[in-house]
Amino acid sequence: MTQSVDRSVAPKKPRSRLLRGVYFVLGVICLGFVYLSVLPGIPTFDFVILAAFFFSMSSEKVHDWLVNHPVYGKIIEGYRSGGLTMRMKWVAAIAITASLSFSAFVLIDNMVLRIVLVAVGVFALWFVFSRPTKTDPPPDQPPLTA
What we know:
This protein is an all-alpha fold. The chain is about 60% helix and about 0% strand.
């Protein structure tokens, strides 16, 4: 199933080919960091959203591919639809906690850096749970699309 991309809400693409090229390279870099997100402390969500933005400013074809990707498209659609499901929030909370805990207590010996990581984790959890909560549609109904 492919998502339709509403071009009326997309940012206006720059006319400069050089600037569009810079945006494209930044999108590719962000997409590359997504594949490194298996490492502790590297988020997936942020880089997918950034890549979608950069590709929307540079290449409609790559942007549409990313939006319709089976995994990344769900992340982008969830972000654009104005809310996260409770399941998405808990998955994010577990990933944040596991990643930062591993980094703070296995990889780092400096107590100041540990405190900073704990503070970042608390802020990240607050941010995730302060976003609007979207309810899942019943299994027999198709999801609402805008």
